[in-house]
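Sharing a chain and its predicted structure for anyone who wants a worked example. Both blocks are below, sequence first, tokens second.
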Amino acid sequence: MPYLQNEIKILVVDDDEDDFFITSDLLHQIRDLKITVDWCYNYNQAIEHLKEQSHHIYFVDYRLGAKTGIDFLKDAMQLHCEEPIVLLTGKGSRMIDIEAMRIGATDYLTKGDITPDKLERCIRYALARFASTRELRANERKYRSIFERSQDAVFVADGNLNFKDINNAAMQMLGYIEEELKNMSLYDLVCAPFTKKQLEIKLLEKGSFDDIETELFTKAGDKIVVVLSASKERDTHNQEYVQGIIRDITNLKKAEKANLQSEKLAAMGRLVRTLAHEVRNPLNNINMSVEEMQQIAPGEELAMYLDIVHRNSTRIGSLITELLDSSRPSELSFEKWSLQGIMDDTISDAIDRITLKRINMKISYADKAAFIMADKEKLKIAFLNLLINAVEAIQHSSGKLVVTITTEGDQHSVMVSDNGMGIPEDYIPLLFEPYFTSKRNGMGLGLATTLNILQSHKAAIDVRSVVNEGTTFYLTFPAANN
């Protein structure tokens, strides 16, 4: 037990010197404890001793001139004093006893009833309680620190997942302030109704759920991909509560998606190159044979057929070249360019089509130029594919096209948004697949080429779309070094 093996320093706060000597004599009669007793008769000096934490335990008389022991207790609590304080009184009073214990006194003793045994027991219990309280408070501070400093969102909620306490990470992740979240439930943020039901069932049947991957709405209306874990617990009053963690894996999912797209493009490129090699050999033989036959074979009818064969063979050769160009990384020449300048040049190339369809175009750029390392001509191809897709998606007379460039930290963002027909949710994961297209005469290579170019520029791309409302492409580029 702390201090019991060492010297115990006790401060007696009493404005009556005779009472101090009586209390001190009783304390020194305790045989099993090594005690040093100090005396303080001035209230303000006693408060200074508290601030300095100069003693292990304080015995305080109830009457201290203009002040009382209750005043001393209140000041001690405001100073966050953790050391035990025992209130002494000449006359026992149940009301003072109750008030003193309510404020934070460790014990309450009547001077006329004090004996060395009672004092020894009071000191042992007071120091034991102090040690336990200090350990509890240290643990509380430790876990509160973990709670507040966690990079994951940590929350405490009731049985219906109504938030009761949340850390700063939760507020930053979800975009709400503390008061707003405390009027909400986790269920209010979950996007999928099926997931809400799943969480309810698991909490009801198992009392917990672990690593549930789902999407949550933020205050801004964005969706983030998270992993949820929570369990039911009971507090010291046997009241049920839920504690849980929300881990944001949105960036991880984007990285996984980008890696998967890269792997698909690489695999498709290998397949295309193999097929091109195998097809071109017999195709070259066909072209050479046709050219020979055109020179030696008479007759207009036969010449017509040979011409058909030759033209289509040439077309097949062109298609193979186009497939190869779309599936392999291009030779790029990087220089420092401003995104605004590249986008302006791209818009100039597309402006006729935008004007002919009477599309209302809005351009919003950051005040400061957003410089990146880029192959200007290749990046124009990527931007042009996005603009043309947006124009072609608008099939009504009130078309809108928005192009925005912003900067945040060391990243520049480009947003291309339209109010066209939108893309079905099932199609979005397939958008950048080579040869996937929903256009009647499309080849499905435009967005595959765009992705290839963007990945060469270390840019990330994301798509959000609502059918009959429109589509938005988000591009993120690393800023060029100064």
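Comments welcome. The mean pLDDT is 84.
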